[in-house]
Amino acid sequence: MNKIILLALLAACSSCYLSNQWDLPAKLNPVVQADGVTQEMWEEDVQLAANVWNEWYLALGCQPIFSLSPDGYPVYLVEDLGEDRAADMDFDDIRVEVLSHRRIMLQHELGHAIGLGHNDNLDEPSIMWRKPKPTIGVQLVDAQRAVEIYCE
Length: 152
Hints:
Blueprint: H1 2-12, E1 26-33, H2 39-59, E2 66-68, E3 73-78, E4 87-89, E5 94-97, H3 102-114, H4 140-149
Parallel strand pairs: 1-2, 1-3, 3-5
Antiparallel strand pairs: 4-5
Helix pairs in contact: 2-3
């Protein structure tokens, strides 16, 4: 019964924080399951997306939150997620489709891994918009919300 109430509350407030989805700081393990992108290319994409968050964390006086490691949470690059989705985050992995803006989609999913929910304020540029724009990465507002959840 309590789980139903919690899920209903989370559904009612899409811009609310989620509970920490992953143990933080998080290790990421890039895994390619798609054609046309090498493991090295995907590792670079994941490192660059992680660095965006890490740089914001450092700028706000916190330790970096993400690193790459073979024993980390899997971050899959896949051909197609179906259901009109470009990326998805779960309690134990991230899946991103092969897209030209996959780094932006990965930055968004890493925000969920930190514990951020969607930001429905379209007057406030944010990586956490429900449908991230390819030209808008992690913003100060995203980083400030993230360090409220976790900062060492």
